[in-house]
Prior knowledge:
Elements: H1 2-89
Amino acid sequence: MQIDMEVKQQEMALDQQRMEQLMALQQQAAQQKAALEQQAMQLTMEYQQKKAEEEMQKQQFEMEKKQQEMQMKMQVSGSQESQNTIVVHG
Length: 90
């Protein structure tokens, strides 16, 4: 009887210890998961910001390119008109 009681107490103590360790591991896992989720959210935000910046730079480049093309056409058109004027008046 005495031995059964001691075995039961040891068994209960081991169960208690196992439960405490399991809870500690679950808490650590939850903390690590939360940290990883926060890191993922931060990295996602940084990616989206860089993507938006690149898109803006691309649009700005395209606008500047079109503006330069228009200036070139105007210069070519203007020089042709001045040549025509010289030919007509010449």
